[in-house]
Amino acid sequence: MLSTPSTPSTGISADRPAALRWAERWDRQQEEFLPEREALFDALVDVVQETAGRPDPLVVDLGCGLGSIGVRLLRRIPDATVVSVDADPLLIALGRAAYGDLDGLRFVPADLRRPDWVERLGLDRPADAVVSGTALHWLDRPVLTSVYTAAAGALRPGGVLVNCDELERDHTATPALARLDRSLLAREKARRLAPGHGEGWYDWWERALAEPAFAPAVAERRRQGFEGEHHSDLSSGLDIHRTALREAGFAEVGTLWQRGEMQLLCAVTASPDGAPEPAPAHTHTHNSAPASRS
Fold first, then answer.
1. What is the SS3 string spanning the chain?
2. Is the overall model pTM greater than 0.90, yes or no?
3. Each residue of 152-175: pLDDT tens digit?
């Protein structure tokens, strides 16, 4: 069993149906800038399933927002435990109101910029996976390295960290490819949003912060020093994340899924014997399929 940290929470006066409607609006506005979001989350859950080695993995979701990744992960892996972490009191309160009755999902208010965030999770064993979706780019470089280092320490040997985000190439080293990355994303957005734009990121935040039912949580986030939507791009470069993951001590770092700038960046902790696990004998890729017999 996971221990529950004795951290006070600030609630909202919204029932579950109302909270679920806000959560649905959250998902839709996220898709406004991340049209491949569901495909990325599918791939993220695939990685957890492939690497967990057990039917009940322990997963930590960093910068969870309303718990979108945790909800999707538990649909596929119902025996998993997902510890969803975010510093924003409004997002934590709304996530709990919408999904608080979902077995295996627990929300923890913790600021990744503080060195004690892992201790606040109350983990009773090393995590099998640490995941994140479009959240870690708002950390500056030193803090990002610190977070990745702490995450590596919280993972079991052979555990994975999977970051789903919009990460840019080095515009100086590969300017043409960087432009193509951005163009691919723009074209995908144009296709998905052809009928017209819906509620965007700034629209959602403006309306949420003005919602009377959320007043206690909004007051608490202001007391804690949050301003508006606290969205920034302090570490949006792919090389920044790769370097930080290597400095954090991960044994392997690489991209598993990519569409333009959107990608699934994965890092693996060293296994106990230092050797990678062999690929399953029954698995064949296009280029490694056995030759046909004539």
1. CCCCCCCCCCCCCCCHHHHHHHHHHHHHHHHHHCCCHHHHHHHHHHHHHHHHCCCCCEEEEECCCCCHHHHHHHHHCCCCEEEEEECCHHHHHHHHHHHCCCCCEEEEECCCCCCCCCHHHCCCCCEEEEEEECCHHHCCHHHHHHHHHHHHHHEEEEEEEEEEEECECCCCCCHHHHHHHHHHHHHHHHHHCCCCCCCCHHHHHHHHHHCHHHHHHHHHHHHCCCCCCCCCCCCCEHHHHHHHHHHCCCCEEEEEEEECCEEEEEEECCCCCCCCCCCCCCCCCCCCCCCCCC
2. no
3. 999 999 999 999 998 877 677 778
